[in-house]
Structure formats: C-alpha cells, structure tokens
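Write out the 3D structure for:
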Amino acid sequence: MSDQSASAIKLVRHFRQILLWPLQLQPIRTGAQIQEPWDILKQAGADNPWSELRDEFSCDPAQFQERHYSEFVTFLPYVRSFLYGEGKAGSAMAPIESPIRVFRRTDVAKVRMTFPGADPEPVTFNVAHVDLCLFYDIDVAILVIEIFGHDLSLARVQETMYRFGRAYPTYWREDNFGGHCLARAEWLARDGSVLAASDYEQRERFLSFVGEHRAPYFASHWQFLLKPLVPDHGVEKGLIRYRQVEYSRMPLLAYLAMDDVRALSRADFVRVGLVTAPGASDALPYSAHYVRDFETRYCYDQFWNEDRSDRPGTRFMSCGHAFVMVGDANDAFFVDSDAGLLGQFRHQYFLLFLIPHFHKAALLMLSDRMVHALNRLDIQDPESVKRFKRSIRHLLEIFLRFTHRYWFHEVSDQPQAKELYRMTASYLGADRLYDEI
C-alpha cells in the first residue's frame, strides 16, 4: 500500500492501529448473577462468524516461543492468573482457566477507508484480526480490531487514527459527511467483495433513532462486525444485546515506524500523541499554554534522546484514550515482530492498555446497574423494595468478586511497563470510579 501524496521525509514505513470498543452486555437470564454469553457464541451457525480462540499458552510446551515467555514474565503473578489462568500445580490440583474468553472472526480481511476532503482516493488497510473479549462474571465485552499498512504519509496516518474508531457522528458537516468520521468505511472479504459499509452520511437515520430510543444509533459497519450481538436499543432480535458504556470514540493503540523519526516536529508529536486531526508541522493543534507540559504529562522518554547523533530511540505516549509508540523504521529492534518492540506492542503493551480500559468499563457497567435498580424502586411498594434490596445485594456480590479477581493497582514490576500502566490508568480515572461505587 502506498500514499502518493506522502512526503519523502515524513513517511511511515509501517503503521499499526488497534482499536478497543468496550461495551456493556445486557443480562441473558433474568436473575442470574453470572451470565455466559460465550455458550451462545460457541454455537456454530450461518449467522455466527465467531469461533473461540485457542489460548497461545495452551500449546505443546515444546512449541512455547520466546515471545510468549517475554509477555508472560512482564506481569506480576496475580495478573498472570487473570490473563493466562494457572497450570496444574500438583497431582490433586486441576489447571485453572483464565476468566477471559476470546472469540475471533476471520471473514474480514481488509478495511477500505475513504477520507473526507479533496482527495477521494481510498486507502486499504490489512486487518490482522477481529476479536471479541468476554470476561467471566462481568457483563462487559471488548471488541478488538487490529489493522496495518505500509508506506503512508504521516498526515494519512494521523487522519486514520483520528477518524477510524468512531461509533457514530457527533454532528454533520455541510457536505453531509459525519463529523470527525470517515467519509466511508468498508469491510472487505479475502476476495475483495464488500461485506459491510458505513452509513455515517444517513443523518436522518441517526436522528430518528435517538429521537425514538434515547440512545445512539451505531454505524452499520460496526453493527455488522458485532453480529450476532445486537444493540439493546432497537427492534432487532438477538440473545446477546449490548449498550454503549463510554462515548463515541474508541480507545486505540498505534505503532509508527518512521522513515526519519527526527523529521517529526513537536506539533507532529502532539497531534499523534493526543490523536488530533492532521495539520501543519509548525502549528500546534491547541494553544501553546494548553500543551506546555505535553512531554511531562504524556510522554515516556526513558529511551528517547534527541541529543544523540544517530537515531534518537523510541518515544512512548499515553493520554488514557490512546497509547502511541513512535520509532525508527531502520532500527532492527523496533521493527522486530517477534522479540522486538513491534512484537511487544502487539502483546505486552496491548495488555497493559486493555486492563485499565476493562476496569473502567466494568465499573461503569456496575454503576449503571445500580442506577437502573434505583430508578425502578418504588418506596411505597413493599415488593419493589424487596426487589431493590435483592438487586443491590447481587451487585455488591459481583463488585466484591470483581475486586478480588480483576482489580489491580499495579500489574508489573518492570519499570517501563509499571510506569506506562500507571499513566494510562491515572488518565482513565478508574480509581475514582471504584471509590464512588
């Protein structure tokens, strides 16, 4: 893939983006504390493209790779139990599975993006995988989409990061394009056929849905990707129903292997790190006062040194919503997809980003359930009071189990992983949510 408008200097030789879309699942069985949506997804059928993904750590011990080992030892023991489960510890003790269930669909091979503006030429990215993560005892699902491309201009990469992960428009432009969204997104099969396309331009569809349901309408290509899961607000039938848990913009990780990383200006780094729209390299996207401490707040520069005469190294950036890694495409360690930073980005750093976003989604889900129970309470009705007490007791039991099974303040003792996790978690504010519940 190439971008003919790319500057020869600010060229991204290899680009990867991983989107996370946390969603709240509605109860399948009324009154049951532990729902099991994976049992439905395991049922093969023409309308179910998902299949459960075999844990890479369940392979033959002789096939266990160094990449797996490097990922495993990054995390503290109690986090490993969450991520990987536990193996057999003695003759009388059976292995304990991880509470995470991952499903994958393999029919989506590429995504074709058309951007708003004067250049109508679409860009096609490869889709590395589309996964759905489910969590035992917590009614949250996280959709994960990883895409990649080569030889793209920095401006095109910035625009992709800025526009791709939009569940719905927040407004419409005069040309009827959805605000901040792609002009068109299309999921492509391996033979190049279009599986589904976006409908951001259908303004009346979004407006009428909100007017009727008091809930946002999700763009059609995102709804397609989640099937047989269906939006809870709507008439479509489905056993697994989901609701929005955060806002319209999906959290993301991005990896940029630059042809010349020294060519990036401070404004370029601000745009990439805070995921803003592309713009002039000599103009900041925000006021100078607002980003005066950008490097201190959002950058982890232990391995970044602009005073070096050769390559300056790797810059890590995290603002909570996004985790971005920028380095030199000529650095063999940075582009190594197995033992190098590219491999770590797709595995260790992905998990370091996933965990705090799961924490936040789970806490928002529990908070929403408590509000729902309160809204149904009629203090004049004894039966309503009984139902309320029962609901709150069940939610507190789930919260207690969440605390002991999933809640971590630290996930690693490795300084870099520890600090990057802390940066992401602090910006998301999960600790404050936990205290409120």
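DSSP finds 13 helices and 14 strands in the chain.
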